[in-house]
Amino acid sequence: MKFSEAWLREWVNPDLSTEVLVERLTLAGLEVGDIHPVASPLKGVKVARIVAVTPHPEVDHLKVCQVDIGESSLLKVVSGAPNVQAGLLAPLAIVGAQLSTGEKIDRAEFYGIESFGMLCSAAELGFGEQSAELLVFSSDAAQFLGMDLDKFLQLNDVSIEIELTPNRSDCLSIVGIAREVGVLTQCIVMEPTIESAAIEIEDVLPVIVTAPEACPRYLGRIVRGINPQAQTPWWIRERLRRSGLRSLGVVVDITNYVMLELGQPMHAFDLEKLDEGIQVRYGFPNETLILLDGTQLQLDAEALVIADRQRALALAGIMGGVGSAISEQTRHVFLESAFFTPNIIASKGRFYGLHTDSSHRFERGVDPVLPRRALERATALLIQAAGGQAGPVTEVTNSACFPPQITINLRLARIHRVLGIEISRKQIIEQLTRLGLELDLTEEGWRVKVPSFRFDLTIEADLIEELGRLYGYDRLPSTQPISKIRPPLRIETETPADRIRKILASRGYQEAITYSFVDPQLQQQLDPKGDSVILANPISIDMAVMRTTLWPGLIQALRYNLHRQQERVRLFEYGLTFNGRLPNIRQEKTIAGIVSGSWYPEQWGLISQEADFFDLKGDLEAILGLGHNRGQLEFIADRHPALHPGQSARISRRGQSVGWLGAVHPALVKDLDLAQHVYLFSLQIGAIENYNLSLFQPLSKFPAIRRDIAFLVSKDTPAQAIFDCFQRLESDILREYYLFDLYSGKGVAPDKKSFALKFILQHSFCTLTDDMIKVFMERVVTMLTTDLSAIIRE
């Protein structure tokens, strides 16, 4: 919300400097983001009237003007402005004046004609965009003839911009900010008197509302006979400019002015372009609407529109259409003032990608009581500026669809408990009353009735927050909270996420946090079978779908680092993935990682070695070891569209796929412009978050012995097949077994390879005998030869 300080001070004028005023607003939660002067300093520029205009005898485009600045004689001024004519009121820089650019005005001669000053445009004065035409004042400026322009236009003013949070829609107006300043400074707010316009004609336009749940209140009025050549009064134009809006003609300017002053967005239709009445309805199938900015919309059954009998005229609460727009020939208007349900405006504004000053207010909440007051204010200003005759107000109201009246019980003891301070009853009553709330005394405190313009006050804590911010957040004491601490209960069979993070951090990884919205093309490359959730209103085209895997964000993070000379990258992310369609979206907690570059940081004590598939597999096995799940999960060689066909494995638990690991596919490496090998893993947290508790077993007092065995198997036999065999081997003396050697080459047939296993044998209750060991080793040999067709090496 941007506004003029001088305008605000007409409503409430505390004895505070600008700096102190904006500090008080910021500390009260209305953060001031910017302050800047409305114009550069001017000297010697006067309000002037052009009395007579004659052509220059030598140059066609120049005019010789006789200008009155309220002195005994007229000044002769030569001007080339295309809009110069007798009777205009405009700014005149007299001889000796200094403009905002630093230029000084001297007496000059134009082809033999002397000029004693310069008639100025808005751009030459430093507060407008036009440079060719003169800045023209309305007729009411005649009473200020000869006054310095900086005093006439209050150019010692500043524009203040407040960065409001979405819940404070009541402060999107001068009246709302004035109300806040009045409470903060205990000053009286002087609101202008708004009286009903005199009814001079009986013309009415029928209004039908077929969507009362979206538009509970709609008011309209006809004003006939306005002067299409009338100009917006200078003070309205200046206040609009200082609030960041440009002048668009007297009718539109007045509706914008009322929006800034009272917070009620309005719209004006050219009455002669309407066909027999107004309808507030939803759009028809295949119906179109061309907006004022030229956008053509394809309406649907959820689009709330203002229409006549033939066609849609405007997208309700957002923007009008070109078919009924005010033009320079408009003489009869229909003024609209309504209350629209916030959710309706917000949803369609986002759907069509539209955001206007009007929708900004409606989607946050506009006072449903305000439309009539705003309509009367706009009518009075329009007739004052452009003449015309007002008709009666047509109103359609469905009070059952209004936001409910909120009543909150506020407890005095609760205020002290939450804020930690004592606030007197008198101060509480005064502050809440100044905010527009109604208080009824109760035994514990008050029953507070919330005004219709405060959509953000719904519970007791909201009222306490109001008292806290008005007291001053900077003044609240710092106190240690006193409460009963209940230790958190942790299920012993769950693997905490922090343990997973710590184990990866200890292995050289850094945690990354990436967006849940990803590039659909990259996601299609990495997870073509994923069922992506498509966003209706994405932030950008490369964030248009929700991630089905964590890999897209990690790949982007890797590329970002590689492009900045970070050759060794080890990242992991713990987050959610999303699959399916509304309303049945599956959210799964996932851990994923990416590795590229050397396995260890560069150092003199180790030979540089690039990370490979087995290094990544070792990291995953470290995670699986946290929950004693290593025996329940299998690494199965398999193909994945995003992974190298010879360096990829599927992680399976009881036959169900729970993750993947492997090298990125060479084609994808080329497409992504990756200059080195990249390895990825992904694992569903649900597969490892539950595990069996370790059970204590007494240590054996008897000695352990080691036995080794070497054997030949087919070259295609994986080591996992051997481990699977021994998991089925039941023995009360087998404590551990390891694969410690793999050999192929000289002395071994080309279709074979040699494995060597180490066994640690120990009994819990006796010393092992040769017979016991012999029986065990025979069982091992039998299992290897039977299940794996192994040949025992001597």
Automatic annotation (TrEMBL):
Domain FDX-ACB: 700-793
Any GO BP annotation: phenylalanyl-tRNA aminoacylation
Annotated binding of Mg(2+), by residue: D456, D462, E465, E466
A GO cellular component annotation in the UniProt record: phenylalanine-tRNA ligase complex
InterPro entries, per the entry: aa-tRNA-synth_II/BPL/LPL, B3/B4_tRNA-bd, DNA-bd_dom_put_sf, Fdx_antiC-bd, Fdx_antiC-bd_sf, NA-bd_OB-fold, Phe-tRNA-ligase_IIc_bsu, Phe-tRNA-ligase_IIc_bsu_bact
Location(s), subcellular: Cytoplasm
Cofactor binding remark: Binds 2 magnesium ions per tetramer.
Cofactors named for this entry: Mg(2+)
Broad enzyme group: ligase
Keywords: Aminoacyl-tRNA synthetase, ATP-binding, Cytoplasm, Ligase, Magnesium, Metal-binding, Nucleotide-binding, Protein biosynthesis, RNA-binding, tRNA-binding
Chief place of localization: cytoplasm
EC number: 6.1.1.20
Molecular function terms, GO-annotated: ATP binding; magnesium ion binding; phenylalanine-tRNA ligase activity; tRNA binding
Pfam assignment, any one: B5
SMART domains: B3_4 (SM00873), B5 (SM00874), FDX-ACB (SM00896)
Chain ranges of the TRNA-binding domain: 39-150
Reactions catalysed according to its record: tRNA(Phe) + L-phenylalanine + ATP = L-phenylalanyl-tRNA(Phe) + AMP + diphosphate + H(+)
Residue stretches making up the B5 domain: 403-478
UniProt-listed NCBIfam families: pheT_bact
Subunit composition and interactions: Tetramer of two alpha and two beta subunits.
UniProt family annotation: Belongs to the phenylalanyl-tRNA synthetase beta subunit family. Type 1 subfamily.
Name listed for the protein in its UniProt record: Phenylalanine--tRNA ligase beta subunit
Source species of the chain: Candidatus Nitrosoglobus terrae
Gene designation: pheT
